Amino acid sequence: MSIDLTAMRAELLDHLGLTTEFSNDDLDLLLNRSYWELMNKFPFRETEQSATFDTVAGEGFYATPALFEAIRKLSIKQLDATGDKWSTLDRMTAQTHENELNISEDARGTPTHYIREDGGYRLSPIPDTVYTMRVKYWITLADLDGTNLDTTLPPVWDELVLLGGVWRGWLKLKNYPDAREVKNHQVMLINFTVPVEAKEEEDSPYAGVELPDELTSI
Questions:
Q1: Do residue 98 and residue 28 come from a single domain?
Q2: This model's pTM is above 0.85
Q3: Count of structural domains within the chain
């Protein structure tokens, strides 16, 4: 079973030999910094999402979903002799998009390209009718707090989140030897815990990591 935030806070204080010296907000920040680091380094399947939406004729800009971090692929549904078919839109550069706007800002048609901007994506050409779009994207998992007590990662990763909080706690207490020792242990465990899917797609950023004796990497 997974370890919830309440248990993580208690374990973190126990590892640091503290009782109430750190508030819950202090503990949550240490744990969330560990959580953020792991999410940034590894492409967890839990961060992959997919959604569909319909365009509006004459509207080119569409907002990204909640907790959106980065787009993986944007596709448009089309009908052909064999039935539904999804065609991937190409991403445009800002310069190309500006050049096209200068040529024909009012162009309408079936979207073939898109550009990311602000809190969404802009289609080009602007849809001339209703199209069904599918977006595949990565999200940022919600922070751990009083209303979100679980990481949503596979349970084996909860210990790694905790250990990341522990070495950051020792760092906050200026106990650098213990911080280094705990981080060494966390990295060792990570090397054996990288998601199988991630290993198949790319080398783990932590694979084969050797930490120096000094605390330069903390």
A1: no
A2: no
A3: 2
